[in-house]
Amino acid sequence: MTTPTRKILHADCDCFYAAVEMRDRPELADVPLAVGGSAEKRGVIATCNYPARAYGVRSAMPTAKALRLCPDLMVLPPDFERYRVVSRQIQAIFHDLTALVEPLSLDEAYLDVSTVTRFRGSATWMAQWLKQETYQHTGITLSVGAAPSKFLAKVASDWNKPDGLCVIEPERVDAFLQELSVKRLHGVGPATAAKLEEMAIHTCGELREWPLDILIDRFGKFGYRLYELSRGIDEREVAVTRERKSVSVETTFDRDLPDFEACSQALDPLNHKLRQRLERQGNPPLDKVFIKVRFDDFSITTQETAGQEPSSTHYRSLLEQIWYRNPRPVRLLGVGVRLTPPEGQRQLSLSLGTV
Amino acid sequence: MKFSISREALLRPLTLVAGVVERRQTLPVLSNVLLQVQDDQLALTGTDLEVELIGRVAPDQVDEPGSATVPARKLMDICKSLPEQSEINFAIEEGRAVLRSGRSRFTLSTLPVAEFPNIEDGPGNIELSLPRGTLKHLIDATSFAMAQQDVRYYLNGMLLELNSNLVRTVATDGHRLAVCSRPADIDVDPPQKLIVPRKGILELTRLLGDSDEPVNLTVGASHVRAHTGEFTFTSKLVDGKFPDYERVVPRGGDKVLIAERAELRQVLSRTSILSNEKYRGVRLQLEEGNLRVTANNPEQEEAEENVAIEYSGDGMEIGFNVSYLIDVLTVLNEDRVQLTLSDPNSSALMEEPGGGDAMYVVMPMRL
């Protein structure tokens, strides 16, 4: 079966939070600027502008480290309310073009424009229009990638950021992939990249020379994905409503929690917040409850249990199991629930009575 | 400590004991097996603090009694990979365990014997004896229905009910329930209800053969201990109250059908190939003399099977997790199976035609 070639756009605001701040305070435009948590509270950088990037500052970097790299860095606390307002304006522009919009976050979305007839159906013109409209109405610059699949569209939007526009036409996909660094593939982090390096694979072209069975042998299930991606195969559709799979609340503490008792006490307010969040979503049916712990050495562990109730008692018992395995100071605690997908809600339960 | 033993004699108890040892351990010594040699007998102990298993075997030669703890899985892997009928010499030399066999030599680390925990058990207040085959049958007939990692922690195990002249096992994960009873020559008064944790049940059943030889049970306030001659198995008990199975077994079903068990099982297994991989829903359409089983998956692939049944009543459609039905058909022994239904939202009762020693209750899925 041959499916008609799709046209997917990936639109990504350039350093969104920082861009909103610079728009509202133009005097900040040329100084190194970041939005994130304060170093005293051990926050991390959410976004930074390009002058800050010149110093090596990156998002997800601890603010303390960012300040070491760039002592003059101006770190603003995030103002999500303001960002959300801008985000809504931008999403409205996306929806002007097509109803098939899959938002990934406040500042990023996929658009399926395969059936759009405006702009004579030209993805390039559509991308230009999106950038123009967004800049005119919000003052934010957008990088847009256009390609026949989601993954290539995302690679393209990142290609000549900021204020970029990159189109990978269907007939150019093959040549583009031939030279594309495997590090650009979604899911290829430092570990996989190193493994590929050992196999002398740097580009998708080189990756394509390896047979599927060897890739699966070396990379497990991801080997199959590598095989597909290196050939430009990515059938994922632009999902207009994304199914929510879990709800959780977490917090990083100003100071590490030293012992079980301190962690245990921190659970109640988290659970309270979680319940509020679940209530806002109409208390959906739950499949499992889980707890997430990040220790002072940044290692992360989670523990989950099949059950229905996010109660402090259950979270305490999960925490106990983690603590038993690895008692050490805790930097971050999170509590959450996995939701029962619609299909799973069909199984009826025995009435075991209250025991 | 120094002794020699044949590979085969060591492997049997070692494999079972190493089965108790968890791969991920909280205490390093729990990855080890405790070896104790005394009076021409070698005892091997493995524990995860909840379940403890001691196996005993007679070495071919004991040169020096003593005790040591060595990594269980490594010891087992070494013994397994030695040639059949190998003679193994085991000795502690300068705090390390040295295993020699033919032209092979392995030196393993040890940890102090004093660090090896044993499950502290209070005095047993009840002692009784059952044929091993009876206990094994009771467990095998019901263990598949035990919950796993449920917050209702008492479901992550099996209820063992000891009455006068009757033993019963019950397991449920909240979607299905299995109960099996057998007469036994015991006298327990008042009746005892123990919840044995899931892992304890799975390990215990590996020890029990189908023989009529006895297994001796000692029940304490927080432990149960089983002796089978060469093995001593101890498990902590789950402190909790198990649901009352009698409230769950449906009584009002008016649609009774009888099918060939093996045939129905095959039909369901084939149909299941095209059911949703995770939720495994199938649709049963009941009509006179025929049961139609259909399934489809998110890819819109479809399976349909028809199987002859004994049934003469109203038609009905009902959905089930096909695995739940297959599990029951796998443990039942009779050639035929009886299903009692009432409506698409009520539980089904599965058992031998006319009722056997086991009953299975399965909740449906909404269609």
TrEMBL record, chain A:
Active site: 108
GO MF annotation: an example: damaged DNA binding
Pfam short name (any one): IMS_C
Superkingdom, natural source: Bacteria
Enzymatic reactions: DNA(n) + a 2'-deoxyribonucleoside 5'-triphosphate = DNA(n+1) + diphosphate
CDD domains documented for this protein: PolY_Pol_IV_kappa
Record text on cofactor binding: Binds 2 magnesium ions per subunit.
Reported function: Poorly processive, error-prone DNA polymerase involved in untargeted mutagenesis. Copies undamaged DNA at stalled replication forks, which arise in vivo from mismatched or misaligned primer ends. These misaligned primers can be extended by PolIV. Exhibits no 3'-5' exonuclease (proofreading) activity. May be involved in translesional synthesis, in conjunction with the beta clamp from PolIII.
NCBIfam families listed in its UniProt record: PRK02406.1 (NF002677)
Protein's name according to its UniProt entry: DNA polymerase IV
Automatic annotation (TrEMBL), chain B:
Domain of life: Bacteria
Stated family: Belongs to the beta sliding clamp family.
PANTHER family xref list: BETA SLIDING CLAMP, DNA POLYMERASE III SUBUNIT BETA
Ranges in coiled-coil conformation: none
Molecular function as annotated in GO: 3'-5' exonuclease activity; DNA binding; DNA-directed DNA polymerase activity; identical protein binding
Domain DNA polymerase III beta sliding clamp N-terminal residues, every copy: 1-119
InterPro entries xrefs: DNA_clamp_sf, DNA_polIII_beta, DNA_polIII_beta_C, DNA_polIII_beta_cen, DNA_polIII_beta_N
Function noted in UniProt: Confers DNA tethering and processivity to DNA polymerases and other proteins. Acts as a clamp, forming a ring around DNA (a reaction catalyzed by the clamp-loading complex) which diffuses in an ATP-independent manner freely and bidirectionally along dsDNA. Initially characterized for its ability to contact the catalytic subunit of DNA polymerase III (Pol III), a complex, multichain enzyme responsible for most of the replicative synthesis in bacteria; Pol III exhibits 3'-5' exonuclease proofreading activity.
UniProt entry tagged with the keyword DNA-binding: yes
Gene Ontology BP term (one): DNA strand elongation involved in DNA replication
SMART domains: POL3Bc
Keyword terms of this UniProt record: Cytoplasm, DNA replication, DNA-binding, DNA-directed DNA polymerase, Nucleotidyltransferase, Transferase
Compartment annotation: Cytoplasm
One GO cellular component term: DNA polymerase III complex
Name of the protein in its database record: Beta sliding clamp
Domain DNA polymerase III beta sliding clamp central: 130-244
Domain DNA polymerase III beta sliding clamp C-terminal intervals: 247-366
